[in-house]
Amino acid sequence: MTEQSRRIVLARRPSGMVDAETTRLETVPVPEPGPGEAVARVRYLSIDPTIRTWMDDAPGYLPPIEIDAVVRSGGIGEVVASNSERYAVGDTVFGMLGWQDHAVIDEGENTAQVIPPGVEATAALSVFGVTGMTAYFGLLDVGKPQPGDTVVVSGAAGATGSVVGQIAKIKEAGKVVGIAGGPEKCKWIVDELGFDAAIDYKSDDVGARLSELCPDGIDVYFDNVGGAILDTCLSHLALRARIACCGAISAYNDRGDAPGLKNYFSLITRRARMEGFLILDYLDRFPEAQIDMFGWVAEGRITHAEHVVEGLESAPDALNLLFTGGNTGKVVVAVDGA
Amino acid sequence: MTEQSRRIVLARRPSGMVDAETTRLETVPVPEPGPGEAVARVRYLSIDPTIRTWMDDAPGYLPPIEIDAVVRSGGIGEVVASNSERYAVGDTVFGMLGWQDHAVIDEGENTAQVIPPGVEATAALSVFGVTGMTAYFGLLDVGKPQPGDTVVVSGAAGATGSVVGQIAKIKEAGKVVGIAGGPEKCKWIVDELGFDAAIDYKSDDVGARLSELCPDGIDVYFDNVGGAILDTCLSHLALRARIACCGAISAYNDRGDAPGLKNYFSLITRRARMEGFLILDYLDRFPEAQIDMFGWVAEGRITHAEHVVEGLESAPDALNLLFTGGNTGKVVVAVDGA
Lengths: 338, 338
Fold this sequence. Notes:
The structure is a homodimer.
Chain A lengths: L3 E7 L12 E7 L8 E10 L1 H6 L19 E9 L9 E4 L6 E4 L6 E3 L6 H5 L4 H14 L6 E5 L4 H12 L4 E6 L2 H9 L5 E4 L5 H8 L4 E6 L3 H8 L2 E9 L3 H4 L13 H4 L3 E4 L9 H13 L7 E5 L4 H10 L5 E5 L4
Parallel strand pairs in A: 8-9, 8-11, 9-10, 11-12, 12-13, 14-15
Antiparallel strand pairs in A: 1-2, 3-4, 3-6, 3-15, 4-5, 5-7
Helix pairs in contact in A: 3-4, 3-10
């Protein structure tokens, strides 16, 4: 009997959160590698907000996931069969492996990167992976904090935001304020990660707290959420402020009805800049950032957290966690389950 | 009998357009210059959208105009009395002279700049003045057009927009598209100013026309209007596009109810930038720009137009013209009237 492999495909485009009808779990034979290909057993999936945007039939930086196609997702796997000179059986690889047990990788479009031995798989997906790189380049290359600056980050207990605040402190920001949901997350970012202050958007008046905590305005705002919080931050900018637009979690599930930005006029009065970026553009600069990041983690200057969800079948629920704020740190699915 | 001087003061903060109750015409004695001061007879007023923003009791880059104070406004005048070594009787000066017949200027806060003989007063207020400088630095310093770029400008038949498009052509933009209101303005910017194409926002579907005219997206958008047109342009950006935020005419009279921007997410997918600027920050760089501008006008490469409204008492109506789109080119009030 042929060995079977599970996979989750997009059954229907969601309107709002992913639900039971959005995806379908299928079983197919384990693929065989063709010439120049390898097959990886997927171990961990990187659950990122951007996956939700790929489920919409809307133009983006990557094409939408097609109906009946496996849900696109970063992941870590172990090479179990190979006809490729690049991949040896036993290698740990990172790539767009998708929500499935087995992924075919090659040296072309479906390439994957071999991870050096000794790097914990979940850390490779979070702080040393795309998430950490997003924090690093978004903050340093787009936000450009100067020593003494007031830096504000939203989604501050999330995978990216939690690292942004810590890098800002390493780079001598004068004050780092995180915006997060709920007292536990707020306590975590201040007590464990060293943020100077936290704003609980679920219970605080964000504008009033920003006035109090950032009396001279925000120099750098790293935005993970878009929507109302971005609009409030726009009205608290310091002169020549930089907004690094990383994501808009608040709008991913309901783009049409999300309220628009009203305070964009302050970009003029504050001579400020709002700039979007995608980590895809920085792939060739990952090594320099990874060297910094390895050092900071080894020195205990950056704490990272992963929120591990067990089982491939839980991937859709894991994705929803990002939008309900049910996670602290990076959401990862352990494909094999408990 | 003392000679009398007219002035227009802010009587009440407007909600929406300026109306009969917003301002009050007063008559006061002609001021005498104190030590170090001079008195200028105001000849022409520069009517700019920003004056409307100063009438609101809202934080801005300059303090609001106080109730019962003369309406703040740039202007050109002739020195008629002087106790200052800087100003001689007969000098033509530019400064914040205000909506009045006579202005007191000094060498400190209420300074004014002496205009060289031979420069036409209305041109000094438009193409060689703040308006032209705004077009120059906003386009070149913030928008940074590269040869071959697609440049779009809104308010394209206005004082600033009309110059922006012409400078873009001089700098070898591949295509310059102006957005203006009505067939006459659209015809003027194409036939007289050399824009490649015009979109009439009053009768065209702006989004559909942008798709048609800018199939590869907008590289530089110079925004004078904000609101719905800015939002539409956001969804037509090329990769690494730059939006130079100069003004938001659509919102000045009704900031609270203006619809917000919904398409800001495309700043991320297009890795684009939206940046505000104020011409006040470029005062020390005016000479370099004025040299370019004098040359271009002399060579016939830049055409400028002034829309002259007669009589100080018409200043409030002249301001409203900017928001109803009743002008083509720079709006100037000839204080003496016809």
